Amino acid sequence: MENQEVLELIREAKKGNEKAIETLIERYLNTIRKINNKWGGTDDGFQEGILGIYQAIKTFDESYNTKFMTHLYFHIEAKIRRYIDKERYRVPQYVIESIKKGEQERLYFSGIENFEIEDGSIDNEDLENKVLVERLLNYCTNQEKEVLNLLFFEGYSGQAVAKKLGMSRQWVHSIKHRAFEKIRNNIIL
After folding, report:
1. Is the N or the C terminus of the chain less surrounded, counting Cβ atoms within 10 Å?
2. Which own/partner pairs from 53-61 qualify as long-range (CB within 8 Å, at least 24 positions apart)?
3. What is the pLDDT of residues 110-123, one digit of tens each?
């Protein structure tokens, strides 16, 4: 059973009492630090941990007869891990711009396996960008190339790609992120 002081603070925080929310955050700052250090100890991770406290306050139900700390720990760790996962799959903006530029200049996949560039008026900068995109896509499997082609070059939505390829939208999302991870890991700056 949770102590009455914490339960009262949670009740007040749920009503929108800013002082109660601040008190709860201050009370559990060390918990955030401990969990954040376990997952890399970044400043952004710490901020996500604070958002986890807000989420824990909002979703805590004292009728389940669990300790708030147990509930809180789960939400803080989940927020930090989600943030880390999202950062892990971040692709540099210039790569995304190269892919979009390639779409505008009519880059085609020919048979998905052999990526060909079809354009009669190519200047050197465009050619370099197209070669970069081609080189990056060579790190991907055929399935990943096909998903990227449908999403970025043919303009399909994730749901439409899933339907066309006979898989779930989540699987399409997973394939896309796996391809981005390969591309990101093979970029030579």
Report:
1. C
2. 53/24, 53/25, 53/28, 54/21, 55/79, 57/10, 57/13, 57/14, 57/21, 57/24, 58/14, 60/10
3. 334 444 445 555 55
How large is the average pLDDT for residues 34-52?
A: 90
Length of the chain: 189
- pTM higher than 0.85, yes or no? no
**Residue 155 CB neighbour total at 10 angstroms:** 9
Residue type for position 79: K
- C-alpha to C-alpha distance for 134 and 136, rounded to whole angstroms: 5
User: Rounded to 10 degrees, what is the CA torsion of 95, 96, 98, 102?
Assistant: 140
Instruction: Kindly give the interhelix angle for 68-88 and 4-14, rounded to the nearest 10 degrees.
Output: 50
